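Re: [ENG-882] Designed sequences occasionally contain unexpected residues at chain ends

Forwarding the minimal case from QA. Structure tokens:
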């Protein structure tokens, strides 16, 4: 080997070493990802080395403790990264303040995890963490987006004092998760405007200018009601029997059924985004009928019409005044029969001024179809030294024995005739 090529090799080695230092520093100072978690032990030893060899200021962020959140279960059957939540730093990338949490599916990190998340519906009783390995500081998190009417297997004694925190759509959860449901937000946040859902009724202050005409183009909006539905039967235990209400309403007004339950091929609408402009252009109402009548169970189907110039007609077990501004929706439960509801909708087909009054809220609010704040809140809770220990008797919390969150198991007799 001559001198020239030896020099080249040395230069190559030095460049490689500096490159590796920079990459490690970059990784450690914030964008730690799944790979880093996988090679955690390797990197920890490297980190000690770099800390000794670099000036303290150049790689400061690496000293922050990273809180590890382990997704123990899958999210339904299909996804590795818990739906769209994502792995590593992704769920927190928009949180600001260098959020300090990482998610993983690597069960080898159980002992190092600060939180262990269980998608309730996907829990397998014979596939839970070893009880003996549980660390006292760990938060076992009960995560669910569906209603108790469809996820009800927590009577097992094992779960009595199992979970430490709840992360569900319910307003009384430790972390309120609305990413798959939606929320209504103030355009300008101020003390006179509060984002929905509201914490309690006393906060409500919705006053809109009664002379305001929000511009919605009604030229082609002469179709009455659209109903998008993929689960055609909700008549099992705990079901809302919404299809019976729809069947009755359609004796009085035209109801166009879209989605998986549509009978006409052209109304299957497999690609929802393509159907939204149609909704906005042609329909005055959209049925947001939940499959079960449970408090706070307000799903994405209610936010869709609000986002696409259509008035939702709601049917569910929630106090909707905590979810939507007054005058933005019509609640079927406010009517004493399907016929009287249908008559009111008929009136709104011809009374344009009254119909347009349902859009005044838009001056003050916007719809957020996928609010992304819950993972940030979870991270904040884990990092907060003030967070107290807590344990749930989850069966009674979830099915409502302690706090009156019980779902209504029988639909109102005034609306549903079976
Ligand atoms: C977790 O810690 C226990 C001891 O408490 C140990 O037996 C076990 O092997 C550890 N598990 C993992 C995955 O490191
Ligand atoms: C539950 O876990 C056990 C043990 O890992 C496994 O054998 C079984 O197939 C799992 N059941 C389901 C429905 O995934
Ligand atoms: C309303 O919609 C109709 C039909 O699409 C269109 O011809 C008309 O220009 C629109 N009016 C306004 C004010 O945008
Ligand atoms: C709605 O308006 C269109 C265009 O003006 C018309 O062709 C159609 O028949 C109307 N439909 C109803 C249900 O009135
Ligand atoms: C529809 O509702 C009306 C009340 O508005 C009721 O009298 C009627 O029996 C219902 N019809 C069916 C088919 O459920
Ligand atoms: C929001 O604030 C901006 C800037 O202060 C103002 O121009 C705008 O009119 C406000 N919008 C609403 C809906 O209050
Ligand atoms: C979580 O619950 C377990 C079981 O009740 C308990 O031992 C542990 O201290 C709790 N941890 C936290 C952080 O609340
Ligand atoms: C729950 O409901 C019962 C009767 O329906 C009532 O007596 C009780 O005060 C309620 N409890 C709470 C915590 O609201």
């Amino acid at each position: 080997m001559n001198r020239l090529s030896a020099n080249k090799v040395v230069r190559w080695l030095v460049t490689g070493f500096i490159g590796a230092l920079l990459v490690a520093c970059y990784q450690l100072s914030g964008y730690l990802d799944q790979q880093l978690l996988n090679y955690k032990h390797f990197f920890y030893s490297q980190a000690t080395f770099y800390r000794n060899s670099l000036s303290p200021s150049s790689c400061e962020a690496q000293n922050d403790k990273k809180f590890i959140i382990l997704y123990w279960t899958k999210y339904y059957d299909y996804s590795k990264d818990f739906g769209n939540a994502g792995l590593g730093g992704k769920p927190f990338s928009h949180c600001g303040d260098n959020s300090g949490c990482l998610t993983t599916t690597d069960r080898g990190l159980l002992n190092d995890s600060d939180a262990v998340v269980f998608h309730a519906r996907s829990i397998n009783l014979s596939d839970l963490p070893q009880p003996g390995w549980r660390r006292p500081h760990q938060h076992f998190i009960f995560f669910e987006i569906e209603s108790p009417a469809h996820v009800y297997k927590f009577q097992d004694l094992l779960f009595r004092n199992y979970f430490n925190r709840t992360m569900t759509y319910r307003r009384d959860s430790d972390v309120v998760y609305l990413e798959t449901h939606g929320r209504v937000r103030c355009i300008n946040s101020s003390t006179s405007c509060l984002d929905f859902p509201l914490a309690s009724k006393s906060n409500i202050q919705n006053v809109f200018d009664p002379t305001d005409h929000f511009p919605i183009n009604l030229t082609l909006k002469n179709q009455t009601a659209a109903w998008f539905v993929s689960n055609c039967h909700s008549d099992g235990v705990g079901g809302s029997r919404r299809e019976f209400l729809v069947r009755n309403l359609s004796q009085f007004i035209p109801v166009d059924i879209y989605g998986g339950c549509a009978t006409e091929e052209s109304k299957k609408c497999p690609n929802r985004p393509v159907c939204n402009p149609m909704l906005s252009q042609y329909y005055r109402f959209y049925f947001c009928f939940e499959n079960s009548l449970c408090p706070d169970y307000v799903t994405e189907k209610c936010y869709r019409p609000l986002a696409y110039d259509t008035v939702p007609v709601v049917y569910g077990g929630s106090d909707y005044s905590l979810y939507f501004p007054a005058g933005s929706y019509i609640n079927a439960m406010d009517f004493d029969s399907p016929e009287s509801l249908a008559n009111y909708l008929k009136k709104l087909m011809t009374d344009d001024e009254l119909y347009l009054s349902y859009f005044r809220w838009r001056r003050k609010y916007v719809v957020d179809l996928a609010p992304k704040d819950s993972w940030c809140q979870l991270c904040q809770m884990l990092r907060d030294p003030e967070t107290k220990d807590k344990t749930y008797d989850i069966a009674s919390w979830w099915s409502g024995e302690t706090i009156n969150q019980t779902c209504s198991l029988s639909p109102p007799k005034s609306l549903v005739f079976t």
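QA comment: On inspection the terminal residues look reasonable. The chain has ten helices and 13 strands. Proposing we downgrade this to a documentation issue.
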